[in-house]
Amino acid sequence: MGTLWMKDGALPDRPTVLFLGDSITNDGRYIAYMDRYFERHAPERRPTFVNRGVSSETVSGLSEPDHPWPRPCLHERLDQALAESRPDWVVLCYGMNDGIYYPLSEDRFGAYREGLAKAVAKAKGAGAKTILVTPPPFDYASMGAQENRGSTAGAKGEYSYLRPYPAYNEDVLSVYKQWVLSLAPEVDAVVNVHDPLLRDIEAARAADPSFRYGDGIHPEARGHWIIAKTLLSRLFKRSSGARAGGSRGRFRSGASRRGRLRRRRIRVERLP
């Protein structure tokens, strides 16, 4: 399968890429890793990456009752983000918050489908190539290990990001992922980050049963690198690899605002 970069010869060599998403996108590390990759290995084709992720955001407009404030919705700001960024590409990564950490419900799933479809239509209407990214996985084992989190529903039987439905990944996000993948004929590209992240979680836990995937919702540096290298491969045909050595090393990204990051030792292959 060709990459999006190869798909349309009219694409600019240095596209402006607008990222829209929730707190995982707002964190910015996977975008910083991509930017650093181009800075080091292909500066002449380096895209302009614009991060407009917003913490807690959804495309569905839903909020769980226990959330401390109504969750922001992308559609409250999408027109402005498109007008200000004037992107060549729009990357949309939603779903983690859209199920509001409850069991699967057709009403909630329908709101997610409607909201994402509306965002795709707006991006296309702005003349941008549209890329969908599947929701990353939720790891209950990581959240359940934290004190006072991830145990049961609240006193009123209500779930929330603090007390999620234990099978949220298997019963909800996996369904959302499959639906996003089914949209491939309708958009310019779909990137599955859910499965690579889940495989890495499973492999890491097999090697070390105490392994934790961030807080269960938000990936740490290693997870962000997996997202970055998956996007680099799928969208840009850029080859990169992360390998675990005999001992854990330190990775320093000049584009990262978080300084020195604990992670597996990374080898980034040079471009052909």
From TrEMBL:
One of its GO terms (molecular function) is phosphatidylcholine lysophospholipase activity. Residues 241-260 are annotated as: Disordered. InterPro entries: Ester_Hydrolysis_Enzymes (IPR051532), SGNH_hydro (IPR013830), SGNH_hydro_sf (IPR036514). Residues 249-260 have a biased composition (Basic residues). Residues 19-225 form the SGNH hydrolase-type esterase domain. PANTHER family: SGNH HYDROLASE-TYPE ESTERASE DOMAIN-CONTAINING PROTEIN (PTHR30383:SF5), THIOESTERASE 1/PROTEASE 1/LYSOPHOSPHOLIPASE L1 (PTHR30383). This is SGNH hydrolase-type esterase domain-containing protein.
